[in-house]
Amino acid sequence: MTRVLVVDNHDSFVHTIVQYLRVLGADCDVRPRDVVDVRDADGFDGVLVSPGPGTPEAAGVSVPLVLRAAERGTPLLGVCLGHQAIAVAFGATVARAPELVHGRTSAVLHDGKGVFEGLPSPVMMTRYHSLAVLPETVPEVLDVTARTDDGVIMGLRHRRAPVEGIQFHPESVLSEHGHRLLLNWLRGIV
Predict the structure, then answer these.
(1) Active-site pick, 80, 129, 158, 164
(2) pLDDT tens-digit profile of 145-176?
(3) Which range of residues forms the domain containing residue 114?
(4) How many separate domains does the chain show?
(5) Catalytic status, residue 169
(6) Residue 13 maps to which CATH number?
(7) Could you tell me which residues come within 8 angstroms of residue 183 by beta carbon, excluding any fewer than 6 positions away?
(8) What pTM did the predictor assign?
(9) Mean pLDDT of 17-28
(10) Exactly one of 110, 129, 169, 176 is catalytic; which is it?
């Protein structure tokens, strides 16, 4: 059974993600970001950095944990705030989104690889965010894997490490193919 450390960034729906992962066969250990140390991830097959309020810089261990996972080759998925933590960890800037979007769906165009394998493009996903990664600041080590039709970055993937982020919420009932996306991530954990 795949063992996943879930870093809880104090999001009210982190347990929905955890339930989905468990249904898909993962053994999840949920720990609040204030009690996780970067070395805690070493004993797991994968790490999920959850959504939550605030900025990535204020998200406790999230940014250092992304760097640790990348260094050690530990598969990591960042969701919403976790996605933003990936961006910041590798030098991108996260700032106010062009539009504040909370509880609305958007068509997400993607590359069909990684977590997006087998999903239609565009795919409707639910967004809850006030911040976004600034496209002009994305470093060469990260590929933009998904965007909205108006250009807001919805996905990032590290070019060499098994680190991937999604800005939207696959666990939302309004998101299409959220289970499949999470299953793709779990299948990518070797």
Answers:
(1) 80
(2) 999 999 999 999 999 999 999 999 999 999 99
(3) 2-188
(4) 1
(5) yes
(6) 3.40.50.880
(7) 24
(8) 0.98
(9) 98
(10) 169
